[in-house]
Each structure stands twice: as C-alpha cells, then as structure tokens.
Amino acid sequence: MDYDAVVIGAGLGGLSCAAMLARSGFKTLVCENTGQVGGCCSTYEYQGYRFDIGASVVELAWVIDELFQRLGARTSDYIDLIPIDPIYGFITADGRRFCYPVDVEETGKVIAGLSPQDGKSWERFAKVGSEAMRKAFGRVMTRPMGSMRDMIRVAVENPSMIRFLKYFLLNFESTLCRFFKSDVVRASMCLQSYFVGLPPALCPGYVAFLAYSEHEGVFYPRGGMISIPKGIARVFEEHGGEIRYHARVRRVLLDKGRARGVELADGTAIRSRLVVSNINAKTLYLELVGEENLPSWAKRAIRSYEVSMPSPMIMLGLDARPDLDAHHTVPYSTLDFMNRIWFEDYLQGRIPDFGAGLISWPTRSDPTLAPEGHHILNMIAFAPYQPVEGDWDSIKEPYLERQLEVLEKQFGLKLKDHIVVARVNTPKDFERMLLHPRGAVYG
Description:
Blueprint (H helix, E strand, L loop, with lengths): L2 E6 L3 H12 L4 E4 L9 E6 L2 E6 L3 E2 L1 H10 L10 E3 L4 E4 L5 E4 L3 H11 L1 H26 L6 H10 L8 H4 L2 H8 L3 H5 L22 H4 L4 E4 L5 H12 L3 E3 L4 E7 L2 E7 L4 E9 L3 H10 L5 H9 L8 E6 L9 E4 L3 H11 L12 E3 L14 E6 L11 H20 L7 E7 L1 H8 L9
C-alpha cells in the first residue's frame, strides 16, 4: 500500500478528517483538484483584491477550537479570528436601517423597537435556541450514530431532547411565525433557511435557531476565509500528512467491493487501506465509484438526491468605503418573497432580483484584503443553473448590471462609480472550479 488513507478533496471536512488520521499515526494523502485548499471556504486573489468563495464568516468557533485541541494544537497559533459585531445590518425597502449586535439583550432592545411584542418573544426564542444548542451539540450531535441501536441509545440517554422534536417536524417558516408577529422581524431572520439551500416553507424548523446561534459569536479569519483550511492543513502536515495539488481523482479503485485507493486524471494509481471522500455524493458514487458497482437501491437513492439552489456571487473591488453598517448586510426580503424565489423563480428557471441575498463586506473586519483605502464587497444571491434568460457565460454582464441597479434603486446603495474590479462567479463557474454538480455550493 502507498498510504494508509487517501482523502479526496481538501475542503474543511477532508482536511479535518485527514489531520485526525495523521494525528493517529495513519500515513495520509489528500488529493486536491485545484491549486489551493478550502473548497467552498477559500479565498482567491484578483488584481490586488482577495475575494472569498462560499463561506464568509465563522460561527460556532468552539467547533474549530475542539478540532485543534484534538490535534494537540491551539487555534490561536494557526488562525487569527477577528470578532464581528454587529452580526447583521438590515436595509428595508423604505430605507430604514437597523443592526443586530452580538449581545442577546441588546438585540432584544433593537427588536422591541421594531415590535414591542416581538422584543419579549426574542427572549423566549433565545432561551429555547440556547438550550437546544447545548443539549444537541453537547449530548447528541457529537455522538456516533452508526446504527439504529446507537440512535436509540442516544434518545434514551437524552429524554429532554423530546421537547425539541416539534422543531424537527415544523418547517422554518412556521417556527419563526410561532415566535414573532412583525413582518420586519420575521424578514430579518428568514435568510438563514437558504444557508441549507431551501426556502422557509421547505426548510426544517430547527434551522430557524441559526438566528440565535450567531449570537454565540461570529468571527472573520484574518487573511480571508482560506486562513481556516490553511491552518488545518499546517497541523496536518506537521503530523506528517501530504497534500497533492492539481490531483483530480478520476475513479476510486475497488477490490471485491471495497475501496482500496484512487486513480488520478493523469492515470496515476495510488493504493491505500482507506479512502475518505469530501466531495459531492453524486459525483463520488455515480462517477468515481461507478453506477455499475452499486446495488440498485443505492443507485436509485443517489439519483434521487437533489442539490441545493445555486448561488452566483458578485465580487467587487471598490475605491471607497461602502455606505453600509456591518460585515453582513441583508436587503429586506419577506418570508413570502423568499418562498417565491424558490417556487416562482428557481423552479421556473428565472433569475430573481437581488431583493433576497447577502452582502458581505470583509474589509470592514480585515482591511488588508484590499489595497490601502479600498474595499471589497461579496454579494451572494440565488438563481437557477440554467436560467431562461440565457447561458450564464453570456449573461454575466447583464446580470451584474441588473443587480447593481436593484441595489441602487431599491436600497439606495450607489456602487457603480466606485468599482475598480468586478467579477461574477456563476453556477457554471463553481461547477468548473470546484466540481460541484450544477454549481450548488451548499451541497
């Protein structure tokens, strides 16, 4: 055997698993298709500006701390996490602005200013969210569940989790509406459903508590989002691990139905005792393993797997400070509008306006990402893989112009005169760059 383990993909999951294997004494190789680590948590430089791809902040940083502890290291020795406060800024359609700070009580005061009733409801929402997080992460989510027996054991040992079961049965929209009455307050918390690639009407209810979990602390890694996978990669290599770049895996080598290595696009065969995948399940099983090697039930299951809605990204390098109030800004979008994006736009192949989306301003937290005095905005939207408006490669410029126009007319953000660099990464670009089917960066 050439290695004890081969990991396909140098995303966060692949690198974390590889580092744990190396720490445990396994001779481990990571095969990465691109020339750098990170996958959907990475940073690319263009004309002096460093733009993030995919992820834009760090939440639940204690998960990263625990990983580094298990690797015999400290996060702070590898990654400099900059606290973000406020978490979000909001711009309503009539020009009103407000922000949610990290402090839970202060956020309650902001919400009470929008709706006194909902200010009290926020206290209850935060209490439920806090308790659910601690019990779920501390006692349930970190427990192995490799079998039905494991699942039953976890349920028996944690009967208090039953009271949170309703949020697994309700959808995201219903959960928010149970707590909050104001359309503005609901709108300020509805974007998070798309963090798992679904509209509020289809997203599981427990995801709504992401609106609370962010108040546990949000951070930005100095140097860009790539600093996180770079830090993990350093620990991995210190434990003897190896990363091979521009090493696209063409197929998984099988021996009597068991994975025993990989074959690269250039024909190189690498033998190993274990193969770990950090790539999309459809790509892995239907292409790298091969449908002919799967039982019929597995083929049906994998084929039925639907990817999330693609998220084109607009990346701007500006010669002036943008008129924004927070690292993240959310243009006002109602629950109904967020649902219409899915049912009336996405499923019909239409590109929605930028009324729903996220504006990330990373240079507010880390000015070193751009030339002195300049700034970066990354704008994340939602759109179909094959829009009726035309092929993505041919409509990039009209798409950019349209979104900038919407931001200026609807929300008063005048950016055009200050753009030095503009790039649009479409679903087709993400598919080519990251090998995500249909460019679905959320899985």
